Amino acid sequence: MQIPPNRDGRLPHGFMYLRLLDLRGFEEAMLDFAEECEELQLLIDKVVEYNCRQVEAVLPTAGRIVRFGDDLGMQNGLAIGPEKWRRYLKPAFQNIYALVKDTGRYVYMHTDGMIYEIMPDLVECGVDMINPQFRANGLDNLERVCKGKIPINLDLDRQLFPFATPAQLDDHVREAIERLYLPQGGLGIYLEIGQEVPLENIDALLEAVSKYQYYKG
């Protein structure tokens, strides 16, 4: 297994779960998880071994925070369900992230989709901050699962950005911060702004983040 020589301090996006889907194809991978075939664990072990070698390769050039990205959820949950995720993939992430944690570094993880059910498990795997999606997980779930427990860098509702009014976007930013803020910290705000977002809405988002960044409750 050859490690690309130009690693930039992070693994490529989709390094574990999405890698399994790429290798097997979505339908075959879902059948593997449903049937719990022995070959699935063999494949997972091979991907973990490769990823561990990649982590060892990037650590010499990594900073204090090592970033990972793997989209674990769909719009309405995990395709394989939380129990199978805990059985097959939680140990995989634990083994990979342990290499980072053993050096005293922090683990930052981006993941798209509805993943609030396994966010505490990701923390147990060694993740220090999670980058979840507002729309997929819902503010009620994020407040219940994360507030005061799990540091997050919240990906605000990018599907709202092109169509909302500036006032609605201000409300969106304010509500997220008011609901999730704690004096001790643990909340970041992330904006992914596509080219379809009007300039006035971009201005409104940036102004709202600037206005509420010093919110104190």
Features of this protein?
TIM Barrel; uroporphyrinogen decarboxylase activity; 9 helices; UROD/MetE-like_sf; three-stranded parallel sheet; mainly alpha
Overview of the molecule:
It is a single chain. This protein is mainly alpha-helical and 217 residues long. It has a domain of 126 residues: TIM Barrel, CATH 3.20.20. 50% of the residues lie in helices and 10% in strands. It is built from nine helices and five strands; from the N terminus they run H-H-H-E-H-E-H-E-H-H-E-H-E-H. The protein has a three-stranded parallel β-sheet with strand order 1-2-3. Strands 4-5 form a two-stranded parallel ribbon. Helix 1 packs across helix 2, helix 3 packs parallel to helix 4 and helix 4 packs parallel to helix 5. The longest helix is centred in the N-terminal third of the chain and has 21 residues. It is globular, with a radius of gyration of 19 Å. The termini are far apart. It comes from Candidatus Avimonoglobus intestinipullorum. Pfam families: URO-D. GO terms for molecular function: uroporphyrinogen decarboxylase activity. This is Uroporphyrinogen decarboxylase (URO-D) domain-containing protein.
